[in-house]
Amino acid sequence: MSTASLADRLAARRRARIRTWAIVGAVAALVLGLAAAAWFTPVLELRAVEVTGAELTDPAEVEDAVLASHGGTPLPQIRLSRVEDELVSAFPKAASVEVGWAGPNALSVAVTDREPVLAVPADGGWDRYDVDGEVIDSVADEPKGLPVLALEDDADVPGAVSAVVAFLDAVPAEQRAGVTSMSAGSGRDLRMRYDHEGTEVTVLFGSPEDAARKFEVARALMATGATEIDVSVPEVPVTR
């Protein structure tokens, strides 16, 4: 093998390595250029927000809030978790918010509202409570489809509300619609009015402890035609 041939091969290898690194450099520069364009230019700026799932929460207000805070910002600069936290804080009727990408210039916002399970008369209107016993909102008209809690004079409002929502949470969802109203003076004297096949039945539950069993016993006794049922001691129910 001649010295000239060896030198030619080494030179060829160097040229190949240079070409390879030149290509890698060009690709890297292109990627960085595209990233810079996406990060700093309006090519991928936020222009639209698609809101789904919101019923108690106003979708238009959610859209306006996101655009007011982040509209015109390139999407790569927007932290989705931050937007979610902002929306949950700004919209107390929302239990959770999930934000995602929805194209080159849009975000999707999926809202899960808190679910009202109880209505309580208050200040000429009605407070709606969720299953955690927390107020969701206040409305002027009596909410349809929700059991209403009638509080006795000098009632322990927080205790009564907590007891009732704990009781309702224990009632099977498919039968909860039959509960037309609840009454209580405290958390230990719960009474329920229940629509059983068109007949109103009054049930005394006492405390919310063992609510699922008490409700099951009461439902069985409703089938006998009883319209007044006391299951405060479920082992020894009383009917009238």
Distance between the termini: 115 Å
Characterize the overall form.
Answer: elongated
Question: What class would the helix/strand composition place it in?
Answer: alpha/beta
Q: What's the total number of strands?
A: 12
Pattern of helices and strands? HEHHEEEEEEHHEEEHEE
* Whole-angstrom Rg: 32 Å
Mean pLDDT metric? 87
Low-confidence stretches: none
> Strands of the biggest beta sheet: in what spatial order?
7-8-9-10-11-12
Helix content: 25-40%
**Largest sheet descriptor:** 6 strands, mixed
Instruction: Supply the number of helical segments.
Output: 6
Classify the beta-strand content into a percent band: 25-35%
Describe what you observe in this structure.
With 240 residues, the chain is of the alpha/beta class. Helix content is 38%, strand content 28%. The chain has six helices and twelve strands. The strands form three sheets. It has a six-stranded mixed β-sheet with strand order 7-8-9-10-11-12, with helices on one face. Strands 1-3-2 form a three-stranded mixed β-sheet, with helices on one face. Strands 4-5-6 form a three-stranded antiparallel β-sheet, covered by helices on one side. A hairpin with a 7-residue loop joins β11 (228-230) and β12. The mean pLDDT is 87.
